[in-house]
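In this section we walk through a basic example: taking a raw amino acid sequence and producing a predicted 3D structure, encoded as discrete structure tokens. The instruction is simple. Fold the sequence below.
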Amino acid sequence: MSTASGTGENDRDATGGVERPSTAWPLFEVFVRGKRGLNHVHVGSLHAADEEMALHNARNLYTRRNEGVSIWVVRAADITASSPDEKDPFFAPNGDKVYRHPTFYEIPDDVPHI
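The resulting token sequence is shown next.
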């Protein structure tokens, strides 16, 4: 893990022995869009001091072989996601909105593939 400190050096603990970083760089998630792809795909994570450094490090780390045409970096702390444990209730169709389902329409016999 990469770390930063105001002085560029690590701080020592109270006993003067083990060095600990004074602050840790934030974690960024990296998304790359390939040459032939239409969507950005999550390719990994990295630590960086700021967004610009994260973008440059992501370019150097994840597109070394000219794999991408676009890179997104997002602070992991800024991402809000649904929980996999809640997938059934979260994505279940709303039963009280029956108008969203084509149950009130008669499909003619001469219309194929419906």
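Looking at the output, two observations stand out. The radius of gyration is 24 Å. Helices lie at 51-62, 87-91. In the next section we compare this with other chains.
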